[in-house]
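DATA SHEET
Item: assembly model
Revision: 1
Owner: S.N.
Input lines:
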Amino acid sequence: MWASQLRKGVLELAVLALVAHEARYGSQIVDELAARPALAITAGTVYPLLARLARAGLVKTTWQESPVGPPRKYYALTASGRRQLAAMAAAFGDVSSALNDLLGDLR
Amino acid sequence: MIRTLDELTPEARAWAEAWLDRATAAAPPTLRADVRDDLIAHLCERLDAGAAVADVERVADAAGPIAGGPSTARRWLRQLLAGLGVHDVPGRIAATWWNPADERVLVPRAVGLGWDLNFGAVAVRLGVIEPDAETEPFASTPARAFATAAAVPAALAAAAVLHYAVRGRNLPDRLPAHWNAAGAPDRWTPKRRAAAADVAGTVVPAAVAAWAARSGRPGSERAGLIAGATLFASISATTTVARSLGDGRRAWLGPAMAASGPLAVGAVLVWLARAGRAEEIRRDLEKAHD
């Protein structure tokens, strides 16, 4: 339960970071998150989040031709998405280092 | 995203300026300039340089009424409806009945208690649409698709009117008004009353759908109104068919009556969403080829 809440809390950061490198399409984002067991989140959580990020103007969507089927909708960071990602990454870094410090040799 | 409205095409910019004038007219004079700046920033954040007038219109619609815009009476009505939990019913119906991003097939009801069917989740499972096909459901659906969807309740209304006009004289004086679980009529009503109920039950929804299709309301509201109208018209049209079958037990009647409304609504919503998806694809691929 706690681990699932933690994953949900960092999901937005994970998705923004994923599309920061290069534009990705929806099922690719779901698959890449699923490939990281610690972040494994279902499509049912990812798609509503993508819609929310698009409405907030943090990611922009573009349909592109696919070489193997119908066109795909790609997600890419906008300028404000990039700023948001930087702020979230900094906050996450602070939390992470504070917790590492607290946990110290308990692990 | 653009930095100033100057980056828009002359037509889109002219529309945006006219909207800004209208939207800020009701704001207190001391705040007008600030409100205008905020609205310009809102538009710039959500528009690209190639935005068409329709895109600007969509963003402006989504911004909602600006404080001071609607009349006092309309504001009171909205507050009253919000208090009763029945504000923005068409928009909420569309968002509840069509949410492909949500995996749940049964979702809390748009209005009242209970559960509604999320046709969007069903469509995703059937593979007829992607969960993220439209960024904002029905926002890109073109006017001609709404007009086609509104033709469904119109066709049901025409069929009901024709049925009573052509076959009316040959129908018995009393027609079934209710059926038991086995599909046999257990209550009857005079023919005239049945005809009036069935014709009104299809013609009124058809008129609502036709009005919604032509209205300039946001896509989700138009979709919600047309979907709701299709549901009512389907129920009435199926009742007309059931009445025409007369006496006798038909076990399939109950399931057929229960399924016809959702099937018609599902078809209409899939049609509207796929039209919106096609429009988004066309726009993006055209931009890429330019």
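QC remark: The interface with chain A takes residues 1, 45-46, 100-104, 130-133, 135-136, 280-281, 284-285, 287-288 of chain B (CB under 8 Å).
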